[in-house]
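Aim 2 progress update. The chain analyzed this quarter is reproduced below.
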Amino acid sequence: MGLALILGIGVLTACSNESASNGSADSEKKAEENSNEPVKFTIMANLHTPEVPSDKIEKLLEEKTGADITFQWTPDGNYEEKLSTAFATSTFPEAVFMKNTTTFLQFKEAIRDGQFWEVGPYLDEFPNLKNLNETVLKNTAVDGKIYTLYQGRPLSRQGLIYRKDWAEKLGISEPTNIEEFYEMARAFTEDDPDGNGKKDTFGITDRSDLIYGAFKTVSSWHGAPNGWGEKDGQLLPEFMFEEYVNTMDFFKDLRDEGYINQDFPVTSKEDQQSFFKNGTAGMYVGSMPDVLSIYRDAEKINPDVVYDVQNQIKGPDGKYGIWSLPGYGTVVMFPKSAVKDEEQLKGILGVFDQLMSPEISNLAFWGIEGEHYTVEDGKALASENAELTDREVKPYQSIEIGEPATNGRYEGLSSYDVKEKAEELILDNENYLIHDPTVPLDSPTNIERGERLNQSITDATYQYILGQIDKSGFEKVINEWKKSGGDDIIREFNESYSETK
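Predicted C-alpha coordinates:
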Protein backbone atom coordinates (compact mmCIF):
# COMPACT_ATOMS: atom_id res chain seq x y z
CA MET A 1 0.00 0.00 0.00
CA GLY A 2 1.46 3.43 -0.96
CA LEU A 3 2.46 5.90 1.74
CA ALA A 4 0.18 8.56 0.33
CA LEU A 5 -2.75 6.20 0.47
CA ILE A 6 -1.91 5.16 4.03
CA LEU A 7 -1.60 8.79 5.04
CA GLY A 8 -4.84 9.52 3.26
CA ILE A 9 -6.62 6.76 5.14
CA GLY A 10 -5.04 8.01 8.34
CA VAL A 11 -6.25 11.53 7.69
CA LEU A 12 -9.71 10.30 6.82
CA THR A 13 -9.80 8.12 9.91
CA ALA A 14 -8.63 10.99 12.06
CA CYS A 15 -11.18 13.27 10.51
CA SER A 16 -13.84 10.61 10.97
CA ASN A 17 -12.87 10.10 14.62
CA GLU A 18 -12.80 13.85 15.16
CA SER A 19 -16.17 14.19 13.45
CA ALA A 20 -17.61 11.37 15.57
CA SER A 21 -16.12 12.92 18.67
CA ASN A 22 -17.51 16.31 17.78
CA GLY A 23 -20.87 14.76 16.91
CA SER A 24 -20.98 12.98 20.23
CA ALA A 25 -20.05 16.17 22.04
CA ASP A 26 -22.68 18.11 20.12
CA SER A 27 -25.27 15.48 20.96
CA GLU A 28 -24.37 15.59 24.65
CA LYS A 29 -24.40 19.37 24.59
CA LYS A 30 -27.82 19.38 22.92
CA ALA A 31 -29.16 16.86 25.42
CA GLU A 32 -27.84 19.01 28.26
CA GLU A 33 -29.44 22.09 26.75
CA ASN A 34 -32.73 20.23 26.36
CA SER A 35 -32.59 19.10 29.96
CA ASN A 36 -32.21 22.73 31.00
CA GLU A 37 -35.16 23.86 28.92
CA PRO A 38 -38.39 24.30 30.90
CA VAL A 39 -41.07 21.65 30.46
CA LYS A 40 -43.70 23.23 28.26
CA PHE A 41 -47.28 22.00 28.14
CA THR A 42 -50.95 23.00 28.30
CA ILE A 43 -53.55 22.03 30.93
CA MET A 44 -57.23 21.91 30.02
CA ALA A 45 -59.08 22.82 33.23
CA ASN A 46 -62.66 23.44 34.33
CA LEU A 47 -63.54 27.07 35.10
CA HIS A 48 -66.11 27.42 37.90
CA THR A 49 -66.00 31.22 38.07
CA PRO A 50 -67.57 33.76 35.68
CA GLU A 51 -64.18 35.01 34.45
CA VAL A 52 -60.74 33.56 33.86
CA PRO A 53 -58.32 34.38 36.67
CA SER A 54 -55.58 36.97 36.48
CA ASP A 55 -52.15 35.51 35.74
CA LYS A 56 -50.71 36.35 39.18
CA ILE A 57 -50.90 32.76 40.50
CA GLU A 58 -49.98 31.31 37.11
CA LYS A 59 -46.71 33.25 37.04
CA LEU A 60 -45.85 32.11 40.55
CA LEU A 61 -46.62 28.50 39.64
CA GLU A 62 -44.29 28.74 36.66
CA GLU A 63 -41.61 30.43 38.72
CA LYS A 64 -41.69 27.76 41.41
CA THR A 65 -41.90 24.76 39.06
CA GLY A 66 -39.58 26.12 36.37
CA ALA A 67 -42.16 25.05 33.80
CA ASP A 68 -43.88 26.87 30.95
CA ILE A 69 -47.56 26.15 31.63
CA THR A 70 -50.50 27.32 29.55
CA PHE A 71 -53.96 27.07 31.08
CA GLN A 72 -56.83 26.33 28.74
CA TRP A 73 -59.72 27.50 30.91
CA THR A 74 -63.10 26.15 29.82
CA PRO A 75 -66.38 27.26 31.45
CA ASP A 76 -68.08 24.54 33.46
CA GLY A 77 -71.29 24.75 31.44
CA ASN A 78 -69.43 23.98 28.20
CA TYR A 79 -66.87 21.57 29.58
CA GLU A 80 -68.39 18.27 28.46
CA GLU A 81 -68.96 19.63 24.97
CA LYS A 82 -65.35 20.85 24.78
CA LEU A 83 -64.08 17.47 25.95
CA SER A 84 -66.08 15.67 23.26
CA THR A 85 -65.02 18.06 20.50
CA ALA A 86 -61.34 17.99 21.43
CA PHE A 87 -61.39 14.20 21.59
CA ALA A 88 -63.16 13.83 18.24
CA THR A 89 -60.75 16.22 16.52
CA SER A 90 -57.58 14.98 18.27
CA THR A 91 -56.91 18.46 19.63
CA PHE A 92 -56.47 17.58 23.28
CA PRO A 93 -53.61 19.40 25.04
CA GLU A 94 -50.98 17.48 26.98
CA ALA A 95 -52.90 17.36 30.30
CA VAL A 96 -56.70 17.06 30.36
CA PHE A 97 -58.91 17.18 33.44
CA MET A 98 -62.21 15.35 33.18
CA LYS A 99 -65.28 17.24 34.38
CA ASN A 100 -66.24 14.61 36.96
CA THR A 101 -66.36 10.87 37.56
CA THR A 102 -69.11 10.45 34.96
CA THR A 103 -67.10 11.98 32.11
CA PHE A 104 -64.09 9.92 33.17
CA LEU A 105 -66.09 6.71 32.85
CA GLN A 106 -67.17 7.76 29.37
CA PHE A 107 -63.52 7.71 28.28
CA LYS A 108 -62.85 4.17 29.47
CA GLU A 109 -63.02 2.66 25.99
CA ALA A 110 -60.63 5.29 24.66
CA ILE A 111 -58.26 4.39 27.48
CA ARG A 112 -58.50 0.72 26.53
CA ASP A 113 -57.79 1.65 22.93
CA GLY A 114 -54.44 3.01 24.06
CA GLN A 115 -55.24 6.68 23.51
CA PHE A 116 -54.01 7.78 26.95
CA TRP A 117 -50.76 7.12 28.77
CA GLU A 118 -50.65 4.65 31.62
CA VAL A 119 -48.99 6.53 34.48
CA GLY A 120 -49.08 3.95 37.27
CA PRO A 121 -45.59 2.51 36.59
CA TYR A 122 -44.01 5.97 36.95
CA LEU A 123 -45.60 7.20 40.19
CA ASP A 124 -42.99 5.69 42.51
CA GLU A 125 -40.31 7.72 40.72
CA PHE A 126 -41.73 10.96 42.12
CA PRO A 127 -41.52 11.91 45.82
CA ASN A 128 -44.99 13.45 45.99
CA LEU A 129 -46.99 11.49 43.41
CA LYS A 130 -46.03 8.24 45.10
CA ASN A 131 -47.96 9.42 48.17
CA LEU A 132 -51.33 9.35 46.38
CA ASN A 133 -53.89 7.22 48.21
CA GLU A 134 -53.75 3.65 46.90
CA THR A 135 -57.44 2.99 47.55
CA VAL A 136 -58.49 6.07 45.59
CA LEU A 137 -56.06 5.24 42.78
CA LYS A 138 -57.59 1.77 42.63
CA ASN A 139 -61.03 3.37 42.27
CA THR A 140 -59.79 5.17 39.13
CA ALA A 141 -58.15 2.06 37.64
CA VAL A 142 -59.12 0.68 34.25
CA ASP A 143 -58.52 -3.06 34.05
CA GLY A 144 -56.26 -2.75 37.05
CA LYS A 145 -54.03 -0.07 35.47
CA ILE A 146 -53.65 3.56 36.55
CA TYR A 147 -54.04 6.21 33.84
CA THR A 148 -54.83 9.20 36.00
CA LEU A 149 -53.79 11.54 38.76
CA TYR A 150 -56.81 12.23 40.94
CA GLN A 151 -58.19 15.28 42.70
CA GLY A 152 -59.16 14.13 46.18
CA ARG A 153 -62.51 14.64 47.84
CA PRO A 154 -63.70 13.71 51.35
CA LEU A 155 -65.18 10.24 51.30
CA SER A 156 -68.40 11.31 53.02
CA ARG A 157 -69.59 14.75 54.09
CA GLN A 158 -73.13 13.55 54.69
CA GLY A 159 -75.07 14.12 57.88
CA LEU A 160 -77.77 16.20 59.56
CA ILE A 161 -77.87 19.96 60.13
CA TYR A 162 -80.65 20.98 62.50
CA ARG A 163 -82.07 23.91 64.50
CA LYS A 164 -80.45 23.44 67.89
CA ASP A 165 -82.41 26.36 69.35
CA TRP A 166 -85.67 24.66 68.36
CA ALA A 167 -84.52 21.35 69.82
CA GLU A 168 -83.56 22.96 73.13
CA LYS A 169 -86.89 24.80 73.33
CA LEU A 170 -88.73 21.50 72.90
CA GLY A 171 -86.39 19.53 75.16
CA ILE A 172 -85.07 17.32 72.35
CA SER A 173 -81.50 16.02 72.23
CA GLU A 174 -79.59 15.44 69.00
CA PRO A 175 -80.95 12.31 67.29
CA THR A 176 -78.80 9.20 67.53
CA ASN A 177 -81.06 6.74 65.69
CA ILE A 178 -83.83 6.61 63.09
CA GLU A 179 -86.60 6.75 65.69
CA GLU A 180 -85.20 9.90 67.31
CA PHE A 181 -84.65 11.46 63.88
CA TYR A 182 -88.31 10.81 63.05
CA GLU A 183 -89.43 12.20 66.41
CA MET A 184 -87.50 15.42 65.80
CA ALA A 185 -89.19 15.78 62.42
CA ARG A 186 -92.57 15.28 64.08
CA ALA A 187 -91.87 17.73 66.91
CA PHE A 188 -90.55 20.41 64.56
CA THR A 189 -93.82 20.08 62.63
CA GLU A 190 -96.42 19.73 65.36
CA ASP A 191 -95.04 21.30 68.56
CA ASP A 192 -94.62 24.94 67.52
CA PRO A 193 -90.79 25.04 67.72
CA ASP A 194 -90.59 28.76 66.81
CA GLY A 195 -93.10 29.65 69.49
CA ASN A 196 -95.31 31.88 67.36
CA GLY A 197 -98.49 29.97 68.10
CA LYS A 198 -98.97 29.03 64.46
CA LYS A 199 -98.70 25.71 62.62
CA ASP A 200 -96.27 27.08 60.04
CA THR A 201 -93.20 24.84 60.33
CA PHE A 202 -92.24 21.34 59.23
CA GLY A 203 -89.40 18.98 60.06
CA ILE A 204 -87.23 18.12 57.04
CA THR A 205 -86.49 20.17 53.95
CA ASP A 206 -85.44 18.13 50.91
CA ARG A 207 -84.98 18.48 47.17
CA SER A 208 -85.24 16.59 43.88
CA ASP A 209 -82.00 14.66 44.26
CA LEU A 210 -81.97 11.07 45.49
CA ILE A 211 -78.20 11.11 45.90
CA TYR A 212 -77.09 14.43 47.36
CA GLY A 213 -80.44 15.22 48.92
CA ALA A 214 -81.70 13.32 51.97
CA PHE A 215 -82.72 9.97 50.48
CA LYS A 216 -79.38 8.25 49.96
CA THR A 217 -78.06 9.27 53.37
CA VAL A 218 -81.21 8.05 55.11
CA SER A 219 -81.01 4.81 53.11
CA SER A 220 -77.49 4.34 54.52
CA TRP A 221 -78.93 4.70 58.02
CA HIS A 222 -81.42 1.96 57.09
CA GLY A 223 -78.54 -0.30 56.03
CA ALA A 224 -78.97 -0.08 52.25
CA PRO A 225 -75.92 -0.63 50.05
CA ASN A 226 -74.21 2.22 48.23
CA GLY A 227 -75.22 1.92 44.59
CA TRP A 228 -74.64 -1.82 44.52
CA GLY A 229 -74.36 -4.50 47.16
CA GLU A 230 -73.82 -8.24 47.47
CA LYS A 231 -76.77 -10.57 47.96
CA ASP A 232 -76.89 -14.34 47.53
CA GLY A 233 -73.35 -14.35 46.17
CA GLN A 234 -73.78 -11.73 43.46
CA LEU A 235 -73.75 -7.96 43.05
CA LEU A 236 -77.16 -6.36 42.66
CA PRO A 237 -78.30 -2.72 42.45
CA GLU A 238 -79.38 -1.03 45.68
CA PHE A 239 -83.05 -0.78 44.66
CA MET A 240 -83.30 -4.58 44.71
CA PHE A 241 -82.63 -4.63 48.46
CA GLU A 242 -85.27 -4.59 51.20
CA GLU A 243 -83.50 -1.69 52.94
CA TYR A 244 -84.09 0.52 49.89
CA VAL A 245 -87.83 -0.25 50.02
CA ASN A 246 -87.82 0.46 53.76
CA THR A 247 -86.31 3.86 53.03
CA MET A 248 -89.05 4.59 50.49
CA ASP A 249 -91.64 3.62 53.11
CA PHE A 250 -89.94 5.94 55.61
CA PHE A 251 -90.08 8.90 53.22
CA LYS A 252 -93.67 8.09 52.23
CA ASP A 253 -94.65 8.21 55.90
CA LEU A 254 -92.78 11.51 56.44
CA ARG A 255 -94.64 13.04 53.52
CA ASP A 256 -98.03 11.59 54.42
CA GLU A 257 -97.66 13.04 57.94
CA GLY A 258 -96.49 16.43 56.63
CA TYR A 259 -93.07 16.19 58.26
CA ILE A 260 -91.25 16.98 54.99
CA ASN A 261 -91.98 19.52 52.25
CA GLN A 262 -94.75 17.99 50.15
CA ASP A 263 -93.24 18.86 46.78
CA PHE A 264 -89.66 17.81 47.53
CA PRO A 265 -89.46 15.64 44.35
CA VAL A 266 -89.54 18.88 42.33
CA THR A 267 -87.85 21.25 44.80
CA SER A 268 -84.55 22.90 43.82
CA LYS A 269 -81.55 23.03 46.14
CA GLU A 270 -81.98 26.79 46.40
CA ASP A 271 -85.59 26.45 47.54
CA GLN A 272 -84.69 23.58 49.86
CA GLN A 273 -82.13 25.74 51.63
CA SER A 274 -84.49 28.71 51.68
CA PHE A 275 -86.98 26.72 53.80
CA PHE A 276 -84.16 26.06 56.25
CA LYS A 277 -82.73 29.57 56.27
CA ASN A 278 -86.04 31.39 56.71
CA GLY A 279 -87.18 29.24 59.65
CA THR A 280 -89.85 27.18 57.88
CA ALA A 281 -88.01 23.86 58.32
CA GLY A 282 -85.69 22.67 61.08
CA MET A 283 -83.75 19.74 59.56
CA TYR A 284 -81.46 19.53 56.53
CA VAL A 285 -79.85 16.23 55.46
CA GLY A 286 -76.90 16.63 53.14
CA SER A 287 -73.36 17.95 53.12
CA MET A 288 -72.61 19.05 56.68
CA PRO A 289 -70.16 21.85 55.68
CA ASP A 290 -73.13 23.59 54.01
CA VAL A 291 -73.90 24.80 57.53
CA LEU A 292 -71.52 27.75 57.11
CA SER A 293 -73.14 29.30 54.03
CA ILE A 294 -76.60 28.49 55.37
CA TYR A 295 -75.84 30.17 58.69
CA ARG A 296 -74.44 33.30 57.04
CA ASP A 297 -77.71 33.80 55.17
CA ALA A 298 -79.98 32.68 58.02
CA GLU A 299 -78.55 35.05 60.65
CA LYS A 300 -79.42 37.99 58.41
CA ILE A 301 -83.06 36.92 58.75
CA ASN A 302 -82.86 35.81 62.38
CA PRO A 303 -79.72 36.83 64.34
CA ASP A 304 -80.67 34.38 67.11
CA VAL A 305 -80.68 31.26 64.92
CA VAL A 306 -78.58 28.37 66.29
CA TYR A 307 -77.57 25.34 64.22
CA ASP A 308 -75.79 22.11 65.05
CA VAL A 309 -74.61 19.06 63.10
CA GLN A 310 -74.82 15.33 63.71
CA ASN A 311 -73.62 12.34 61.71
CA GLN A 312 -74.08 9.10 63.65
CA ILE A 313 -77.74 8.18 63.28
CA LYS A 314 -78.07 4.41 63.76
CA GLY A 315 -80.45 2.23 61.84
CA PRO A 316 -82.92 -0.48 62.89
CA ASP A 317 -80.03 -2.89 63.48
CA GLY A 318 -78.40 -0.49 65.94
CA LYS A 319 -75.48 0.18 63.60
CA TYR A 320 -74.35 3.32 61.80
CA GLY A 321 -73.13 3.39 58.21
CA ILE A 322 -72.79 6.14 55.61
CA TRP A 323 -72.40 5.97 51.85
CA SER A 324 -69.03 6.87 50.42
CA LEU A 325 -67.79 8.64 47.35
CA PRO A 326 -64.87 6.97 45.52
CA GLY A 327 -62.49 9.55 47.02
CA TYR A 328 -62.02 11.70 43.94
CA GLY A 329 -63.96 14.44 42.24
CA THR A 330 -62.13 14.42 38.94
CA VAL A 331 -58.93 13.16 37.34
CA VAL A 332 -56.31 14.41 34.90
CA MET A 333 -55.15 12.27 31.96
CA PHE A 334 -52.41 12.54 29.36
CA PRO A 335 -53.45 11.94 25.72
CA LYS A 336 -50.96 10.19 23.46
CA SER A 337 -52.07 12.46 20.63
CA ALA A 338 -50.39 15.35 22.47
CA VAL A 339 -47.74 13.67 24.66
CA LYS A 340 -45.51 12.01 22.09
CA ASP A 341 -43.10 9.91 24.14
CA GLU A 342 -42.15 8.67 27.58
CA GLU A 343 -39.58 11.42 28.08
CA GLN A 344 -42.19 14.13 27.55
CA LEU A 345 -44.65 12.32 29.81
CA LYS A 346 -42.15 12.04 32.64
CA GLY A 347 -41.30 15.73 32.28
CA ILE A 348 -44.97 16.66 32.67
CA LEU A 349 -45.42 14.24 35.57
CA GLY A 350 -42.43 15.91 37.20
CA VAL A 351 -44.27 19.23 37.10
CA PHE A 352 -47.43 17.69 38.57
CA ASP A 353 -45.22 16.19 41.26
CA GLN A 354 -44.12 19.72 42.15
CA LEU A 355 -47.71 20.95 42.02
CA MET A 356 -48.44 18.32 44.65
CA SER A 357 -45.82 19.65 47.07
CA PRO A 358 -47.18 21.39 50.21
CA GLU A 359 -45.86 24.81 49.18
CA ILE A 360 -47.32 24.78 45.68
CA SER A 361 -50.53 22.98 46.71
CA ASN A 362 -51.18 25.82 49.15
CA LEU A 363 -50.38 28.40 46.51
CA ALA A 364 -52.82 26.89 44.01
CA PHE A 365 -55.58 26.26 46.55
CA TRP A 366 -55.31 29.18 48.97
CA GLY A 367 -53.24 31.77 47.07
CA ILE A 368 -50.55 33.99 48.56
CA GLU A 369 -50.16 33.90 52.32
CA GLY A 370 -50.85 37.30 53.86
CA GLU A 371 -52.80 38.39 50.81
CA HIS A 372 -55.38 35.69 50.14
CA TYR A 373 -55.18 33.83 53.45
CA THR A 374 -53.47 33.67 56.83
CA VAL A 375 -52.39 30.66 58.87
CA GLU A 376 -53.92 30.13 62.29
CA ASP A 377 -53.56 26.99 64.40
CA GLY A 378 -51.98 25.23 61.44
CA LYS A 379 -54.97 25.92 59.17
CA ALA A 380 -55.71 28.41 56.40
CA LEU A 381 -58.16 31.20 57.12
CA ALA A 382 -59.35 32.71 53.85
CA SER A 383 -59.30 36.47 53.42
CA GLU A 384 -62.55 38.30 54.06
CA ASN A 385 -62.11 39.78 50.59
CA ALA A 386 -63.91 36.87 48.94
CA GLU A 387 -64.16 38.71 45.62
CA LEU A 388 -60.38 38.97 45.36
CA THR A 389 -59.91 35.28 46.20
CA ASP A 390 -62.58 34.21 43.71
CA ARG A 391 -60.99 36.30 40.99
CA GLU A 392 -57.34 35.41 41.53
CA VAL A 393 -57.25 32.03 43.26
CA LYS A 394 -60.42 29.96 43.09
CA PRO A 395 -60.02 28.75 39.47
CA TYR A 396 -56.67 27.14 40.33
CA GLN A 397 -58.32 24.92 42.92
CA SER A 398 -59.56 22.84 40.00
CA ILE A 399 -56.00 21.65 39.24
CA GLU A 400 -55.26 20.30 42.72
CA ILE A 401 -53.74 16.82 42.80
CA GLY A 402 -54.36 14.63 45.84
CA GLU A 403 -55.83 15.97 49.08
CA PRO A 404 -54.45 17.48 52.31
CA ALA A 405 -53.52 14.05 53.66
CA THR A 406 -51.31 13.37 50.63
CA ASN A 407 -50.25 16.79 49.31
CA GLY A 408 -49.76 18.50 52.68
CA ARG A 409 -51.81 21.62 51.98
CA TYR A 410 -53.55 23.39 54.83
CA GLU A 411 -57.05 22.40 55.84
CA GLY A 412 -59.42 25.34 56.03
CA LEU A 413 -60.22 27.16 59.24
CA SER A 414 -63.60 28.67 59.98
CA SER A 415 -64.48 31.16 62.69
CA TYR A 416 -67.87 29.41 62.92
CA ASP A 417 -67.53 26.60 65.45
CA VAL A 418 -70.35 24.49 63.96
CA LYS A 419 -68.48 24.39 60.63
CA GLU A 420 -65.39 23.19 62.50
CA LYS A 421 -67.49 20.47 64.14
CA ALA A 422 -68.79 19.46 60.70
CA GLU A 423 -65.21 18.94 59.50
CA GLU A 424 -64.53 16.73 62.52
CA LEU A 425 -67.61 14.64 61.79
CA ILE A 426 -66.48 14.19 58.18
CA LEU A 427 -63.33 12.54 59.51
CA ASP A 428 -65.45 10.44 61.89
CA ASN A 429 -67.55 9.26 58.94
CA GLU A 430 -64.48 7.56 57.50
CA ASN A 431 -64.84 4.91 60.20
CA TYR A 432 -68.29 3.89 58.98
CA LEU A 433 -68.14 4.04 55.20
CA ILE A 434 -70.30 1.99 52.85
CA HIS A 435 -68.40 1.65 49.57
CA ASP A 436 -69.82 1.06 46.11
CA PRO A 437 -68.14 -2.18 44.96
CA THR A 438 -68.72 -1.37 41.28
CA VAL A 439 -66.56 1.77 41.23
CA PRO A 440 -63.46 -0.02 39.85
CA LEU A 441 -65.53 -2.52 37.83
CA ASP A 442 -66.62 -2.42 34.24
CA SER A 443 -69.95 -2.63 32.44
CA PRO A 444 -70.15 -1.40 28.83
CA THR A 445 -73.95 -1.53 28.99
CA ASN A 446 -73.97 0.66 32.08
CA ILE A 447 -71.80 3.25 30.34
CA GLU A 448 -74.03 3.15 27.27
CA ARG A 449 -77.50 2.90 28.84
CA GLY A 450 -77.12 3.11 32.60
CA GLU A 451 -78.07 6.76 33.00
CA ARG A 452 -81.31 6.35 31.04
CA LEU A 453 -82.21 3.10 32.79
CA ASN A 454 -81.53 4.52 36.23
CA GLN A 455 -83.81 7.46 35.52
CA SER A 456 -86.72 5.02 35.38
CA ILE A 457 -85.81 3.82 38.90
CA THR A 458 -85.53 7.41 40.14
CA ASP A 459 -88.99 8.19 38.72
CA ALA A 460 -90.45 5.04 40.27
CA THR A 461 -88.90 5.85 43.66
CA TYR A 462 -90.62 9.22 43.71
CA GLN A 463 -93.88 7.69 42.44
CA TYR A 464 -93.80 5.18 45.29
CA ILE A 465 -93.18 7.87 47.90
CA LEU A 466 -96.00 9.98 46.45
CA GLY A 467 -98.36 6.98 46.56
CA GLN A 468 -98.76 6.81 42.80
CA ILE A 469 -97.53 3.20 42.65
CA ASP A 470 -97.32 0.44 45.25
CA LYS A 471 -94.66 -2.21 45.85
CA SER A 472 -95.87 -4.39 42.99
CA GLY A 473 -95.75 -1.36 40.70
CA PHE A 474 -92.17 -0.68 41.80
CA GLU A 475 -91.24 -4.31 41.11
CA LYS A 476 -92.73 -4.00 37.60
CA VAL A 477 -90.38 -1.06 36.94
CA ILE A 478 -87.45 -3.15 38.16
CA ASN A 479 -88.43 -5.98 35.81
CA GLU A 480 -88.62 -3.55 32.91
CA TRP A 481 -85.20 -2.17 33.92
CA LYS A 482 -83.81 -5.70 33.79
CA LYS A 483 -85.33 -6.46 30.39
CA SER A 484 -84.08 -3.17 28.91
CA GLY A 485 -80.44 -3.82 29.72
CA GLY A 486 -80.32 -4.15 33.49
CA ASP A 487 -79.71 -7.91 33.32
CA ASP A 488 -76.71 -7.21 31.09
CA ILE A 489 -75.39 -4.64 33.56
CA ILE A 490 -75.74 -7.12 36.43
CA ARG A 491 -73.98 -9.82 34.43
CA GLU A 492 -71.15 -7.55 33.29
CA PHE A 493 -70.48 -6.12 36.74
CA ASN A 494 -70.42 -9.61 38.25
CA GLU A 495 -68.08 -10.90 35.56
CA SER A 496 -65.78 -7.95 36.19
CA TYR A 497 -66.08 -8.52 39.94
CA SER A 498 -65.09 -12.18 39.65
CA GLU A 499 -61.96 -11.18 37.73
CA THR A 500 -60.81 -8.99 40.63
CA LYS A 501 -61.10 -11.73 43.24
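Residues 365 and 394 are 7 Å apart (CA to CA). The first helix runs from residue 3 to 36. These observations will guide the mutagenesis experiments scheduled for the next reporting period.
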